[in-house]
Amino acid sequence: MSRPIDVAVGILMQPNGDVLLGQRPEGKPYAGYWEFPGGKVDPGETILEALKREFVEELGIHITSAEEWCGVEHVYPHAHVRLHFFISREWTGEPQGLEGQAFAWQGTVGVEPLLPATIPLLEWLDRVRY
Questions:
Q1: Residue list, annotated binding site for 8-oxo-dGTP
Q2: Residue range 4-42, pLDDT digits in tens
Q3: Does the keyword DNA repair apply (predicted)?
């Protein structure tokens, strides 16, 4: 098995518990699938630094605080990833799809299809948001 790629993933959570999901844009593996936003950790970058950079690049927002939540490894046909999840309840700016991606605030998650590594997290997430 290949060495996993570290990926920083952020769960933006509004006071009512709604979370932000983004849809993977055309040209990327699993295009059209919904996921929590984030991206690869660059060499020399901490996971939190990567998360903050990705949210500026993808959504145009600035994370002001985030707490480490959990980690999950998943092997996709195209990549072996180690996902580092953070929950953020504090940010500045309004999310925008800067890479042409759709996004949606979700209480009960109703968007489909979901990226496979995202599915098991939804039940865990319900324990911390309500």
A1: 24, 35-38
A2: 999 999 999 999 999 999 999 899 999 999 999 999 999
A3: yes
Q: What's the pTM?
A: 0.92
Quick one: DSSP state of residue 27?
T
> Structure tokens of 58?
């993808």
d(CA 41, CA 77): 20
Known binding-site positions: 24, 35-38, 58
pLDDT in tens, 67-117: 999 999 999 999 999 999 999 999 999 999 999 999 999 998 999 999 998
**Three-class SS state of 37:** coil
- Collapsed DSSP state (helix, strand, coil) of residue 49: helix
Annotated binding site for Mg(2+): 38, 58
